[in-house]
Design brief:
The chain is of the alpha/beta class. The chain has a single domain, classed as Phosphatidylinositol (PI) phosphodiesterase (TIM Barrel, Alpha-Beta Barrel). The chain has eleven helices and eleven strands. α5 packs parallel to α6 and α10 packs across α11. The protein is globular. The two termini are 28 Å apart. Magnesium ion binds next to β2.
Length: 269
């Protein structure tokens, strides 16, 4: 009798595991914090504290923006200007002591990656901002990013994204095993793959207009990422396609939504 009960428990346990696995495959979207998790007390976009907050919240990855100064120092900042200085035309020493809105120092990429390296398991999503009217400096920025990532032993922890198709192509050529995704929309997954780029990272409107691109990317073993999805109804809609990643300013809420969706799917078995 006891042996029969144990067998039943074992069988039902195996079945549960199988169902869990299926649900995990059906709802596998991972959350990327947009410019870190900055909607926290005392934090700011693209600050090192936002990166640490993302890790603390348990997100899969954290995105950040990289700009290059006129003297080729890579810094982490979204806008192409900082405190009135156009970054690509400004020497680093002019802005190096400037502070972010929360009082943190403007981080260099080196400082940012060094902080990220300590946050085990967190994917670092490096967005290189295009360098306006200076393609040579942009290509140099790509090379410097890759060199720095390699030097810090973070080759397997960093994905690359950019609105510059040329920068994406160069990242892909220099780091053939890395995930590289184009941000600008318009191109079908197969068109990106044909030029060596193995993922797309598109605005949600582009994905809503072309929902089949998520499946197309999956079929070609490419990644798909949707930005920047903050509205819960929109999150729900986009999760139906099960993109690889969803980038949001509300990572904790989206993780809860994904968990709730998994539970709803599981109940159907
Ligand atoms: Mg960005």
């Amino acid at each position: 009798m006891l042996a029969a009960c144990a067998l039943l428990v074992l069988i039902s346990g195996c079945k549960d595991n199988k169902i869990d696995k299926m649900v995990d495959q059906m709802v596998s979207t991972k959350v990327i914090a947009h410019r870190g998790y900055w909607k926290c007390e005392g934090s700011a976009q693209n600050s090192i504290s936002s990166l640490r907050n993302a890790h603390k919240a348990g997100v899969y990855g954290s995105e950040f923006d990289v700009q290059i100064t006129a003297d080729s120092v890579l810094i982490v900042n979204h806008d192409n200007d900082f405190k009135g200085h156009v970054i690509n035309l400004t020497h680093y020493k002019v802005i190096q002591d400037s502070l972010l809105s929360n009082g943190e120092k403007l981080p260099t990429l080196e400082e940012y990656l060094a902080a990220g390296k300590k946050l085990k398991g967190l994917l670092l999503v490096l967005e290189l901002k295009p360098v306006k009217d200076n393609p040579a400096l942009e290509q140099y920025a790509v090379e410097k990013c890759v060199e720095m990532v390699k030097k810090m032993g973070l080759g397997k922890r960093v994905d690359y994204i950019s609105f510059s198709l040329e920068a994406c192509k160069r990242f892909a050529a220099l780091m053939p095993k890395a995930s590289v995704a184009y941000l600008g929309g318009y191109y079908m997954p197969i068109e990106l793959l044909e030029i060596g780029i193995n993922g797309f990272d598109y605005h949600y409107n582009e994905v809503l207009m072309n929902p089949f691109w998520v499946d197309e990317a999956r079929n070609y073993n490419m990644t798909s990422n949707v930005w920047t999805v903050n509205d819960s109804l929109l999150v729900e809609t986009l999760l139906v396609g099960n993109p690889t990643f969803l980038t949001t300013d509300n990572p904790e809420e989206v993780m809860l939504q994904i968990q709730a969706l998994k539970e709803r799917v599981r109940e159907r078995f």
